[in-house]
Amino acid sequence: MDGTVTAVSSNGEYSFTKPNHGAITLLAGLGVEGDVHAGVTVKHRSRVAQDPTQPNLRQVHLIHEELFAEVGEAGFEVTAGQLGENITTRGIDLLGLPTGTLLRIGDDAVLEVTGLRNPCRQIDGFQSGLLKQVVGRDEAGNLVRKAGIMSVVIEGGVVRPGDTIKAELPDGPHRPLERV
């Protein structure tokens, strides 16, 4: 299960969207260098308010570019970085990966998948009605989150558009992704 990086994004200030860059540097145990969400402990405001000592399981946010086409069919225009992701991908089923999957990106970087992004109302602030497109229910009525996955940096390195992504699944039994 391989894919490709199509864009990289970061922002040193709290903002829903993140501007695209030619490269980002991942720092082991921290996240994206210079990004507001980098750190050993949680940086998302709502989680800091609950308990600022929680480990940061959301150091790097990845989202699949295929989602942009899907929401485009419903009349929404979304491009890389606009949903706050750090790495935009193509060709890899991010949502189908189990917890603990290692993602080898480019020459050096290794991420460990920690769970699903839990989309919030800020998405509707970006484009009204978009939240319903990235959160839904399956045939059995189970909640389905489509706004990407979260990860921690195991090995740092520079990541650029065009880099390959190689997924290494953990030993079984596999645990499905849950929100983090």
Describe this structure in words.
- One of its GO terms (molecular function) is pyridoxal phosphate binding.
- This is MOSC domain-containing protein.
- It comes from Actinoallomurus bryophytorum.
- Helices cover 12% and strands 32% of the residues.
- The strands form three sheets. Strands 1-6-5-11-8-7-13 form a seven-stranded mixed beta barrel. A three-stranded antiparallel β-sheet has the order 4-3-12, with no helix packed on it. The protein has a two-stranded antiparallel sheet with strand order 9-10.
- The mean pLDDT is 95.
- By secondary structure, the protein is mainly beta.
- It contains four helices and 13 strands.
- It has one domain: M1 Pyruvate Kinase, Domain 3.
Short synopsis of the structure:
With 180 residues, the chain is mostly beta strands. 12% of the residues lie in helices and 32% in strands.
Task: Write the SSE topology.
Blueprint: E1 2-9, E2 20-21, E3 24-27, E4 31-32, H1 45-50, E5 60-64, H2 66-72, E6 87-90, E7 102-105, E8 109-116, H3 122-126, H4 131-134, E9 135-137, E10 143-145, E11 149-155, E12 157-159, E13 164-168
Parallel strand pairs: 5-6
Antiparallel strand pairs: 1-2, 1-6, 1-13, 3-4, 3-12, 5-11, 7-8, 7-13, 8-11, 9-10
